[in-house]
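Lab notebook, bench 4. We co-purified these components, and the gel suggests they stay together. Before we commit to crystallization screens, I want a quick structural picture of the whole thing.
Request: model the full complex, all chains together.
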Amino acid sequence: MARSQSSADRAQRAAAMQRQAKAKERRSSLIVWGSAALVLLLIVGAITYAVVTRPSLSGVAEYEDLGRDHVTETVTYEQDPPVGGDHHQAWWNCGVYTEPVPAHHAVHSLEHGAVWLTYQPDIDQDSLDTLEGLADREFMLLSPNDTQTSPIIATAWGHQLEVDTADDAQLPLFISEYVQGPQTPEPGAACTGGTTTDLVAGP
Amino acid sequence: MSEPAPVTRRPKAPQKSTIAAVVVAMVLGVLGGWLIFGQTSPDTDSVEAGFARDMSEHHAQAVDMSLIALQASDERNIDVLAYDIATTQSTQIGTMKGWLAQWDVPLARSGSRMEWMPADDMADMTGMGEQDDMPAASPGAPDYRSMPGMATTAQMEQLRTATSTEAEVLYLQLMITHHIAGVDMAQAAVDSATTAEVTQLAATMVNGQRSEIDLMTELLAERGAVPQESM
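Here is the predicted assembly.
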């Protein structure tokens, strides 16, 4: 009797151990799958967040079939400031200007891969400081433009973005995208060594 | 006899095969991804590498001619043109040699010039006659023209010694001939290359040099001269 009792005891203990082992397995698989699911959720969440909050260049207008001939007189452009078209043989040197720059020269700078920031002359000093900070790099032109209808406009060859304020998040994106960007008709060309005086003897 | 409790290890077995399946799937995934998205760079005999080498050499002479013209001429429109060509083409040489380095192929060609160009495109090119009967092993020979459109060593010498208007006219004429062949070469790359950065840059060369040919033809006319060759 004692034997069988102890045998039943053993069986019971074995069953208990089995249960314990099963429970342990369940726990560890719960931990594995749980953490895998958590990691997956974190990744999906991060991507969703990045996609949703990413500032986009959705406001950029694009123009095609722009003239590229060299001319020696002023040109009437369809956009203000122009996004491309026929232009003078000399490009306008990139940099910061406090007076309007001649469009027939600046369009040639766009052809060389420059981004041209223009603003309405009544802009406040803080905004102007911000724009000067943005223009403080190679292949950037900054100048006032009396005739444009938006406060601030960023222009690259065939591409234009109109914004209301200098701290608009699209401006740095526009600059990253288009300074010597894929739209550049003459990659490798310089934005120095051109002209800073109007070579068209205007009226 | 009491039955020994079957201490089951069953759940472990599927786990092993699951791990094996995951590993196999990952290997297949990486392999598939590599096949689909993996970039194989052009090899040394490719159209891309041939174009990069030959166009670099072609560009180098245009830079040389432009720097000579920049010194010889006091005319603003010649200076601007020469500066534009010299800076643009120097930068493009850097881009093209950068490709060769990145593709891990030699910068020096192993075969002969223009081998990468399809025969049909070659046949259409002007200036190939000089190429055919040029003495292969005499790079210093007076009328050596190493590639279509390129100025001979005698013409380069003539340009170096010319002054003012004579230098301007010679520069414009030599550069028009140079550009015409450059456009043909670039167009052949646009048609035959399969690497996006190569076809994109080559396409900008076709358009850029074409518009410069028009400009130079006008500048020649202002000086009462005409191109030696036309497109």
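The longest strand of chain A covers residues 115-119. Worth comparing against the SEC data before the next meeting. The two ends of chain A are 125 Å apart (CA to CA).
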